[in-house]
Predict the 3D structure of the following.
Amino acid sequence: NAGVTQTPKFQVLKTGQSMTLQCAQDMNHNSMYWYRQDPGMGLRLIYYSASEGTTDKGEVPNGYNVSRLNKREFSLRLESAAPSQTSVYFCAGGLAGKGTGELFFGEGSRLTVL
Amino acid sequence: QKEVEQDPGPLSVPEGAIVSLNCTYSNSAFQYFMWYRQYSRKGPELLMYTYSSGNKEDGRFTAQVDKSSKYISLFIRDSQPSDSATYLCAMSFTGGGNKLTFGTGTQLKVEL
């Protein structure tokens, strides 16, 4: 019973490099989310997918792209990493339509861009 | 100005104390109010959920929402060292599904 699994847990990139953060859930969630967490800024929504086959921008989408590969998987791509993207990234899943605000989070991916 | 304001702390209390954590918000359209707990180097987990105004109690935890003042609170009774964590308030709109707006979090330490 893994819940929400994120890979990698840690990554160091150089400015301009690209990478993809992977997220997979086995909780049958309809909706999936990518947040970033920075000191003093809290959790900010980057992109979300309300259901398989749909994606939408959140509060801070610039510099990122996402793919909802299937119901289980939702990946976040940085095409050309910048130091401002140094952060902790969290993937989360939820049951769309339930409206209770219950999101299940992964343990985070810590990214440093030099 | 952020939509949701939360004092970052840190807040340090002795074991057994009553803890009060608070958030204010500016958007009156928020209808769902949540408190998440986040242990160090872990993802947040849902602690309490409240719809609209009122109180909700779950064991040692009580959540209060005052929509007229745009103010929400989380009370922890008989605090324990295991309650040491960062507490994040979160809110959403009717029809917003699970798109949440978070506060910055308050770091709490309960000392023996």
Summary: The longest strand of chain A covers residues 31-38. The mean pLDDT of chain A is 92.
